[in-house]
Amino acid sequence: MKRGLIVGAGLTGSLCAALLRKEVSGALFLAVWDKAGDSGGRMTTASSPHNPHCTADLGAQYVTCTPHYAKKHQIFYDELLAHGILKPLASPIEGMVIKEGDCNFVAPQGISSIVKHYLKQSGAEVCFRHCVTQINLRNGKWEVFKETGSPEQFDFVVLTMPVPQILQLQGDFTNCESDFLYSYLN
């Protein structure tokens, strides 16, 4: 069974995991690691410690669908709308710039519900507080080290965290050919 790791449990990592699950034929163990204590990345929803029904979106508060992206990604918007994860934004937000043809959506259960939806779809093993520190290519496998625990080996690794965090990683992965992942996926 092939083993894959996606580093980052934000929107990019969760959607990547869901798409990999749909597209990769055969048996695939898929893991998603994030250094934070919950999913969402820059699309996090926080709850009040005193009232769990009182939430605030940290980062993105709404999603804008431009006419250009509506054509390219309509299937994603339709799916999120059908599951009640997104709903049309009914009221303008102070300071919001509305352009002709744009559609704005909110996530009634919090913006991180989008990320959680895709993580659930992916069937991945999601691990929080897994801070990746080093990646090395050893005997055709990616050896991934984290702050605590033993390193693990994967057939492929997808990094979806911000570039400054990628640049802080140790290891010889930066010297490897960029088409290594593409050869596995194709």
UniProtKB/TrEMBL annotation:
Domain called Amine oxidase: residue spans: 105-166
Swiss-Prot/TrEMBL keywords: FAD, Flavoprotein
Superkingdom of origin organism: Eukaryota
The protein's name in its UniProt record: Amine oxidase domain-containing protein
Gene3D superfamilies: FAD/NAD(P)-binding domain
GO molecular function, one term: oxidoreductase activity, acting on NAD(P)H
InterPro entries: Amino_oxidase (IPR002937), FAD/NAD-bd_sf (IPR036188), RNLS (IPR040174)
Gene Ontology cellular-component terms listed: extracellular region
